[in-house]
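CATEGORY: protein folding

GOAL: derive structure tokens
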Amino acid sequence: MKTIHVAAAVIVEKGKVFAACRGYGEFQGRWEFPGGKIEKGEKPEEAIRREIKEELAADIAVDTFLGTVDYDYPDFHLTMECFLCHVVGGTLTILEHSAFRWVKREELDTIAWLGADRIAVQWVKGLKSF
């Protein structure tokens, strides 16, 4: 099974978490923490800053490593490095996703998250504050 290695940004602001809805592909309509593939020679933190700039036209600071999710989808294995982040420049603007939401802690379980992201959601719910 092919393995895909990605970095994901759990972007927080004023007690809410940024969620993005996939606008294309097999997982269209499902929600995720934004991010993308880590390129050869790139550190996960570098990848997540690059991906957020490309996908959301904003600059982020990477604050804390939350953990690594290993998840088997039907056609591939995903290794996802998750980081707690915040916006330091620009405004989050969806360029590749179909929608976005700022989600309160009590709303996290009401969203149709992708499988790997559901694991990261549990970590976010366990944070003392965000």
Notes: The mean pLDDT is 96. The first strand starts at residue 2 and ends at 13. Helices lie at 44-56, 115-125. The chain has one domain: 2-125.
